[in-house]
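Supplementary Methods, section 5.1.

A reviewer requested that the exact input to the structure prediction be made available. We therefore reproduce it here, unchanged from the version used in the analyses.
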Amino acid sequence: MRVLALDIGDVRTGIAASDATGTVASPVRVLPTPEVVGNARTWRMLLEDYEPELLVCGLPMTMAGEVGPQAQHVKEIASKISLSCGIPLEFVDERLSSAEAKRILRRQGMNEKRMRGKVDMIAASLFLQTWLDANTN
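The structure derived from this sequence is encoded token-by-token as follows.
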């Protein structure tokens, strides 16, 4: 089963995809959030290319593990995306995924400016891999 992961931010949405067997996550790209929410051509093309059966959206829980205002906002946006493309939606805790993504990119020698567009898709691949590991036989 192919799964797409979304790391939804106010400005950008990082996108990652599983392989066809649903075992390995890979970063795909970053799109402006309004393009994803608005079902723009760039988003529709990704859906056509990957043909996902499920969307997994990162939920920015508080450090105490609670659903705060930001997580509620992301839930609303993700639900709109799911409805507009007709693909079921699940949520996964994404706490610290962006911090881990930045650590990975720093180890590759990137500065803040160069990593700006990459952090979101790397974070999406990290929490997607966690989800895949927990949900595959």
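The chain has six helices and five strands. These observations are discussed further in the main text.
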